[in-house]
Design brief:
heterodimer, A: about 50 residues, mainly alpha, B: mainly alpha, 10 helices, Heme exporter protein C (chain B), cell membrane (chain B), transport (chain B), cell inner membrane (chain B), transmembrane (chain B)
Chain lengths: ~50, ~270
């Protein structure tokens, strides 16, 4: 196990927050793409 | 004038043609994603297993390997948005507004990460989460400008009017970029002065500098890939809007509905 010293909590919190925001950003991008693809599909257009 | 018509379009013109853009970016995104993930994995490995603890900061220096790339990308995406704003106002290029709109949430997210990770570093190192120091305040202003731009897009329904208004506000906000960069030189700040991009070279030891540069490179690659992906989605959203309006016009003219149901479709204001 990695020993992050006395301030390990701050380091872990910084990485956890960054991971949360990045996962949210990517998940939102994928969700948005899927919504637009579905909408285009309803108009008979297919795009990847 | 006939000479202009027969001119071969430049590489930039061809790459930025929306149809052509969709083709090349569609092929590039999966490769860029794989490259970003690999670079990030190597960067994180170096950060946690190779980089030595700092002689003053100890292990807390590891926060810098996300804080510095996030700060760079917050500024980088605003710079990209400012260039796109010029593209919107001067050339009215359709991809300029698409690029600007796709960049705003990404830039805002990285600026937020920069602020929060900086704060989490500040508490053990400075003894406080926040001070109204010029660098910290100008980064907070950058985040607020991002939020303002995103809000402005949602306020104006007509995309062309929104594009021009947002482009003007983006260029006004660009005055903050040199303030962020030089705040540590112009004012007496608690935030340290430049240690990578400075006259006389970096002050960081190579054992820490190269992993940091790799993390900056990996984040830039990942952020740019996400930007390309979001631009493609934005182009699709505009296509959906055009088709929705066309369908509404057909229905107004008394035609029979061809699209079965709009249930679950993106509401028009969000599709703008």
């Amino acid at each position: 196990m990695l020993d992050l010293g006395p301030h390990g909590g701050f380091i872990a919190a910084a990485y956890a927050f960054t991971a949360l925001i990045m996962v949210g950003l990517v998940a939102n991008a994928i969700r948005d793409r899927a919504a637009q693809r579905r909408a285009l599909h309803r108009f008979g257009e297919d795009r990847r | 004038m006939s000479e202009t018509a027969t001119m071969t379009p430049s590489l930039w013109t061809r790459l930025s043609n929306p149809g052509h853009f969709m083709r090349w970016s569609g092929k590039a995104v999966p490769w860029l994603t794989a490259l970003s993930v690999a670079a990030l994995a190597v960067g994180l490995y170096l950060t946690f297993f190779i980089v030595p603890p700092d002689y003053q900061q100890g292990e807390t220096v590891r926060i810098m390997y996300i804080h510095v790339p996030a700060a760079w990308l917050g500024v980088f995406f605003y710079g990209a948005m400012s260039l796109s704003a010029i593209g919107t106002l001067v050339w009215r290029h359709p991809l300029a507004d698409v690029s600007q709109r796709a960049a705003a949430p990404i830039g805002a997210a990285f600026t937020l990460v920069c602020l929060v990770t900086g704060s989490l570093w500040g508490k053990p190192m400075w003894g406080t989460y926040w001070v109204w120091d010029a660098r910290l305040t100008s980064m907070l202003v950058l985040f607020l400008i991002y939020c303002g731009l995103i809000a402005l897009w949602r306020t104006i329904e007509d995309p062309n009017r929104a594009a021009r208004a947002v482009a003007i506000l983006t260029l006004v906000g660009a005055v903050n970029l040199p303030i962020i960069k030089f705040s540590v030189n112009w004012w007496s700040t608690l935030h340290q002065p430049a240690s990578i991009l400075r006259m006389g070279g970096s002050t960081i030891d190579p054992s820490m500098l190269y992993p940091l540069l790799l993390m900056i490179g990996a984040a830039t690659l990942g952020g740019s890939t996400l930007h390309l992906y979001a631009m493609r989605t934005e182009i699709m959203r505009r296509r959906v809007r055009t088709l929705t309006i066309r369908e509404a016009e057909r229905l107004d003219a008394g035609a029979v509905r061809v699209v079965p149901s709009a249930a679950g479709a993106t509401p028009l204001p969000q599709a703008l």
